[in-house]
What does this fold into?
Amino acid sequence: MNDQTTKPTSTKGPRCLHYTDRGRRCQLPVVDTRSGFCFRHAKPLPAPSDSVDLSAELIGELYEFEFAVDINKFLAKLLVLVTKGRVSPRRASVLAYITNQLLHSHRAIDREIDAQSGEDAVAQVLRNIPRPIRDEPPKVS
Ligand SMILES: [Zn+2]
It folds into this structure.
């Protein structure tokens, strides 16, 4: 038996730290650098808790969510935390749903304000159409 068969992964990086009951070291490469174990012997990371307070990271200075850009910033932060594994997909789904409801409420508020002012959307468009200037009489050449 040559040296390459006993250590097939020695040139690919560190080997797993797991030892069998007979005292043989696992030959597989390390995939979890924190624990030093291979994919077979590394323990799965605990699922992120849904009750951890992430308000400082997720909300920060965005506390009113008055504008769509605030919700956009929140969703971007949420995406980062989900991809890092700090927020469970379930919790992220709930938070994304709530932000969607906030966006819908913004539109509802706008409609209420328009209704209270007695002006509907068509009236707003008609009011904002540029009008011809009729102060000067047309020049005849
Ligand atoms: Zn291993």
